[in-house]
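Posting for a labmate who doesn't have an account.
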Amino acid sequence: MGRNHGKSRPRREDPIHYLASTYFHQDYDLEAREPLGVVRNFVGAADEETISALRRETVHLLADTEDEEVLVLRWSKASYDPRDDGISMREWFESVVSVLDGRR
């Protein structure tokens, strides 16, 4: 199956929705010790175009959106809610970008 592990992404799908729905499924917590580990799994499995698209979309979302509820809606397809861990959605998306940049 190669680098994508059977999780290839249709070109038209929103990259945030793709990460949320494909990697943060019902059993996401069996995939890694912590939620950011799931993001690292994504980085290890996805092609550069998909990673770049996710980073670009997330950075634009953070720059264009002050409203926490808008951020919540963008992550609504995920089974993981960072707020349950005391993390705001803005902090979550900033952490995702840090992982995509190789800083975490």
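Reply:
Got it, the structure tokens are right above this. The two ends are 27 Å apart (CA to CA).
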